[in-house]
Amino acid sequence: MMAQRVPLTMGQDIHSTDLTEACPRKVLLRHEQKIEPVATTALFRGVLAGKCLEYLHTGLSFEQVREGVAGIANEVVSELAAEGRVPSDSVEKNLGQICHTVCFVAGQYEKQLMPLLGQCKLIGTELACRLTLGDIEFASHMDLVLRDTNNVLGYGPDRLIIADWKFRQHVPTKAYLARYHQFYLYWLMAMQGSVQAYPEVDGWIDYKENAQMIWVHLPNLEPYKRKITRHDDEGNLREYAKGEDRPVSSILRDVNYKVECASQMCHDLTERVNMMRAGFFPKIADTVGCTVCDAREFCTRADTVELLENQ
What is the pTM (predicted TM-score) of this model? Predict the structure, then answer.
């Protein structure tokens, strides 16, 4: 007999990862704490990159970050340990290369993006945020929140900017970002929820603003590996040489949500939560995701009878 799936309970905080996970079964297994307590290379690299970029925005120079990257990596190890995770064998074996990759990205970030982002007023990094929709409590953290006081990014003076650092292989399309639940949640938190805006203030702020959402695609900080023709930041088609930096517009991927769409965005989020509360966590296989999933050892499969015990 199939085991009864335990639904998410009333009063249980919903995190952004619960909304964006492609496979709902993984959400269930994570809430049941059925995950491998191992930090993969991709996870470790992403957390380390975020930590280094935080330091760039809060006053350290790139040289200081580069010289202190080993210590920053130890900070990440400690934070992961507090979550019950340890670095994988691959992380330990390739830690030097991971640090080198992250340092290169941080250097390119300082070179290409800080001349723009550094002109904005820093509200904070890794800021706690929350939103209540009916009886559903959402909680998450925003990577970077800025106030574009001088309109250097071109979205309007004093525009609230919410940027999310992503170290993923695939570049998001406009169609994807227009439907991306994590950005829905952050946008609604700025519009209808609260943000713990330290160090700007020591407390929670209800901004009630239409924030500009930006996906920062960190892999595109790597220069072109071959000669290629692409549009530049002014929209002109031009040829880029091997080793030339990519245009900033290929790194900062924006999406402009409309206030008129807020009710539909709320509906999309609550619909996903109500599905989980009802105990529906369908398994959705993925050619890559299933291979690297940290819950794969607890996810039933049709060619291994023993795993049925983990239902």
Answer: 0.91
